[in-house]
Design a protein that fits this description.
By secondary structure, the chain is α/β, with parallel strands linked by helices. The protein has helices at about 5-10, 15-30, 50-55, 70-80, 115-125, 145-150, 165-175, 195-200, 215-225, and strands at about 40, 60-65, 80-85, 95-100, 125-135, 175-185, 235-245. The protein has a single domain, classed as Rossmann fold (3-Layer(aba) Sandwich). It contains nine helices and seven strands; from the N terminus they run H-H-E-H-E-H-E-E-H-E-H-H-E-H-H-E. Helix 1 packs parallel to helix 4, helix 5 crosses helix 7 and helix 8 packs antiparallel against helix 9. The longest helix has 15 residues, at about 15-30.
Length: about 250
């Protein structure tokens, strides 16, 4: 798992910056009803998406929460409405927001039962008719049919934490029903073999790959040997799902 306090200062610049955040914000807003007045962005990170959601929907009151001090500090500088908090215990009363968003969050929650707890907590703070909008199958979005994907295929985790079936099951158990989907491009996130090799050695793909023993070293070596090691492959496509509190 990444050290998000340590990563905060350079996080956006290594992950597509404003173009990627803007694509995510636009996709989120396609799934948030125009009648929504209060939105909570959980696991908001640096606040790059949070800020753009607020800018692009005047009249929508947007706040964020994140468990990393470094990330929350940057998000607060951007938006002024961010709390340092555990997404499993949101600092809000029940039934107080119209929308909860979780962009690039659930796939990181690998501990048994953690995604279920977070979905339940999102459902708790939603008002009747409110929506929970989240990325699903995030890691699969990086599979673009490239040689990098082929090298990593034997090591893919068989049970991603944010699999559609799992998230849908958890949502159903909390009284949420699916009401929409959207797809957006992860601009600037097309991987190069060289960067992918370094990421494997750092453990950045812990949510995606199972690399016991010396597997990380072997995979990194294979990635380094791919042709055009500094050419970025195609950008990923990410999927969002929206779930509404049942009437």
């Amino acid at each position: 798992m990444l050290d998000y306090d340590e990563q905060a200062a350079r996080y956006d610049s290594t992950r597509g910056g404003t173009p990627r955040a803007g694509a995510a914000a636009d996709a989120v807003l396609r799934l948030v009803p125009g009648s929504a007045r209060r939105l909570l962005d959980i696991g908001c990170g640096t606040g790059s998406v949070t800020e753009l959601i607020a800018r692009r929907r005047p009249g929508l009151r947007v706040a964020g929460v994140d468990a990393s001090y470094g990330m929350a500090r940057l998000a607060h500088e951007r938006t002024g409405a961010v709390a340092l908090a555990d997404v499993r215990r949101l600092p809000l009363a029940s039934g107080t927001v119209d929308a909860v968003t979780a962009v690039w969050l659930l796939h990181l929650l690998r501990a048994e039962g953690m995604v279920q707890v977070v979905v339940a907590e999102a459902a708790r703070v939603l008002r009747p008719g409110g929506v929970f909008v989240t990325t699903v199958d995030k890691d699969a979005g990086h599979d673009v049919g490239s040689d990098i994907d082929a090298a990593q295929a034997p090591f893919l985790s068989p049970r991603p934490a944010d699999a559609v079936a799992l998230v849908t099951e958890y949502a159903d158990g909390c009284g949420l029903e699916p009401v929409g989907e959207a797809v957006f491009t992860g601009h600037g996130q097309g991987r190069t073999p060289r960067r992918a090799a370094r990421a494997v050695l750092r453990g950045d793909y812990a949510s995606r790959l199972s690399l016991p023993g010396q597997a990380a070293q072997r995979l990194a070596a294979e990635l380094d040997s791919l042709p055009e090691p500094d050419r970025a492959r195609r950008d990923p496509e990410f999927r969002l799902m929206a779930f509404r509190v049942r009437p």
